[in-house]
UniProtKB/TrEMBL annotation, chain A:
Belongs to the amino acid-polyamine-organocation (APC) superfamily. Spore germination protein (SGP) (TC 2.A.3.9) family. The chain crosses the membrane at residues 12-32, 44-63, 84-106, 121-138, 145-166, 186-207, 219-242, 271-292, 304-321, 333-356. This is GerAB/ArcD/ProY family transporter. It is a multi-pass membrane protein. The keyword Secreted does not apply. It comes from the Bacteria. InterPro entries: Spore_GerAB. The lineage of its organism: Bacteria, Bacillati, Bacillota, Bacilli, Bacillales. Keywords: Germination, Membrane, Transmembrane, Transmembrane helix, Transport. The keyword Ribosomal protein does not apply. It is found in: Membrane.
Automatic annotation (TrEMBL), chain B:
It comes from Paenibacillus phytohabitans. This is Spore germination protein. The keyword Transmembrane helix applies. The keyword Transmembrane helix applies. Belongs to the GerABKA family. It comes from the Bacteria. The lineage of its organism: Bacteria, Bacillati, Bacillota, Bacilli, Bacillales. The chain crosses the membrane at residues 293-315, 389-407, 419-444. InterPro entries: Spore_Ger, UPF0353/GerABKA_families. Keywords: Membrane, Transmembrane, Transmembrane helix.
Amino acid sequence: MGVKVKESLQVSPYLLWFLVHGSQTGVGMLSFQRKVAGGAGQDAWVSLLLVGLLFHLLLWMMFKLLSYSEGGDILSLHREYFGKWAAVMIAGWFYVYGLLVVAVQIKSYGEIIQVWIFPDQPLWVITALILLVCAYIVSGGFRTVTGISFFGVIIPSFLVLSLYFPLKYAHWNNFLPMLNHDTGDYLLSARHTLYIYLGAEFILLYLPFIKNPKQAQKWAHLGIAHTTFIYLIVLVVTFAYFNLQLLQHTVWPTLILSKIIRLFFLYRFDYVYVFTWFIVIVPTCCIILWSIVHAMKQISGRPARLWLWISVLIVGVIVQLERSPVSLQKLEAVTAAAGSLFILCYLPLLFVWISIIRAYKRRLTK
Amino acid sequence: MVDIKKRKEAGADSSAVAPSLEDILQRAGKSQDFHQFSPFEGEAYIQVSYYKSMVDEQKLTLSLLPALQQNRAALSHPHDMKEILPFDDMLLTNDPREIESKLCTGYLLLQFSAATDAECLLVNIRNDTLGQRTSNDTENEFSVVGPKAGFVENLDTNLHLLRQQMPVPELIFRELTMGSISKTRVAYVYLDGVTNPQLIETVEQRLTSIDFEIFFDSSQIDQLIADKSNTPFPLFLSTERIDRVAFAISSGQVAIFSNGSPYGVTGPSNFLDFFISPEDYYLPWILGSFFRLIRIISVIFSIFAAPLYVAVLTYHFEVLPDSILGPLIMSRLHVPLPPVMEVIFLEITIELLREAGARLPTKIGQTLGIVGGIVIGEASVRAALTSNILIIIVAFSALASFTTPIFKMANTIRLLRFPFIILAALFGGLGLIAGFFLLLGHLLRLKSLGMPYLVPLFPFRTGNLQDSIFRASFQYLHTRSKFLRPLKLSRYKPSADKEDIDDE
């Protein structure tokens, strides 16, 4: 703990773009439109943009916080300011939260696979397949995880082009009347939006593995801007294609959008979409798994490989735990609440608190 | 257990106490190709010893013996002989160990005194070319345009060929002897002032740390110095083409040769290196780029075509439009096997044909093509073992795998198809995409001499892309690849393209 990471293990700053973007986008992009439209309706894109801006601010806060610490991650920050047990607590919290996020990703994707493609395939087979791929990648170390998130952002980018087809049937007056909601509605939308942006906070754990963190900050911001941009165009196309009433009854609007595409050799483009989404969720799971495994390794001193298999097992159990139609929603709600609480309450509080301590110390030394 | 221990101790003892010259000659005398004689009767003590199987008898009878006879009077001390004898590689020594190892590699021993610790003269009259082939056509890496000469089994010839291609003092050969029994001469070659010294150090260190018995081919060295052995991918490029090795050395890579192997090993290599053919550079860049792109696409096709067939026909036939599904069903109408069995049956047939073709002499090999192509292909469709469409797919993917210029990589691609077929049969498209990600994760973990295997794609390096998936014009290829960290980046100064509008 607190030991500087060797330079040969670090990755270039620009890769932070792909790490941040890769950890934010996941299975949420297939289904977020319905919930987001719940508050502000056709104006929900405003909330989406605002939450994007909020994340820029939070990211700035995270970088500022980490620059106060010698070790460069949140564990060493806690140890330096509040002692060893605070570091253990925060590592434990990240561990539980990370496992929940990974479980939600895998469970939601498994559900899509079952509904869309393999109704007879048991969930544990799909889970095992995804987890084995993740475990293999994570055991390759941070460089491999970064590489996977790089390709996991580049390869699925071609799907953006597929949004052209629904635009042929766009009803642009779906957006009218513009900006006719009140603040409460926007906030309600924003609350649901927050969930799809979560994932960026794991930067608090893996930042020491980035060369030159100061320079890397702009790439992290670019990653968040990229996320905002992708969510925005998907949301705009969805609103242009669906009317709000129809949207309320659509579970996976993004997949429905792709279903209308017919190529001369391919009648069901949504299959391509679902399978390509594997490439989107695996980097998310890998980054998070690597971060929490690394954190636990630091705290416990036990080998990372042990923690990796323990984590994979726990995720597998969480996914299997309850099999009812609402179990996924419950899991999602818990995860979203945990993440939102951390990023909206704990992080700003920590920032203020540490700023006060630093100001106080500075006065003392004067 | 005790026995082994004892023997080990005995071995350690014998190596600790140096054997005398007499012991050595006695041991060598056990072998019947070891000859000893004195050229003159009586007068002075002169004894000549050598392995008949290793020396050039012509040098012995036409140069060495006449020189001895002409200077009979002056033969009192080995120093005098050194001045008289018409050979360049001679050395004076009284170290029995050195004498033993030199004798075995074709040196001749001249003793001038009966005393065992007296200095003796070792003369190199090794016959290097005996039993070596003289033709050096490239046999496996053929190109229509460009040089046809390749390396041979003789290390000195290979180094000669290389220096002929690059007659500059910066070209450095460093030689080592490796293998406890084979005593193979291994040389690594680099360009001084271009190749990164760290890289040279790594190669030297990896080579010297190898402990091995017999080296038959440089590909063994390739495997022994690899960063990771649990991978189907070749981590070093091995080639018999002079131009390839010269290009690699001039780019700042290190080449390794071993005596007895016509293949040079160059490294560090990256994934895309294996899909480059020298012909890309001999054809105009537009054609060169096109063919390189075809090769890369054919690799993807070769790996994924048959698994995709399995996945679609087993699970996802609804993705196909009726116009394609109709013919597919028609051609599979009488096939009793499930798609995966059908594909594996046909793939194995192709592999059998290939393997048999590689083992058979060339003349019989041609008949095999006819047997395989017509008889098996046509008959297995008639017998309803496979569908026509699958034969086309499998034949195409076999053809596509042959476009890879480097044999080792072509083999890897042949192998990769099978896990993908099985994954596709088990999980359909999900298995395919999971397999693809496993493969990507595996490639990301690989390193060649410490350099990431997927560079310049990941870590993404701009400025090195002009010679990767496509080949740009020579106007833009004037810098070396940055990821090899060469000491000098610039190769040459490009001249500007001639603009018609300015001149005419």
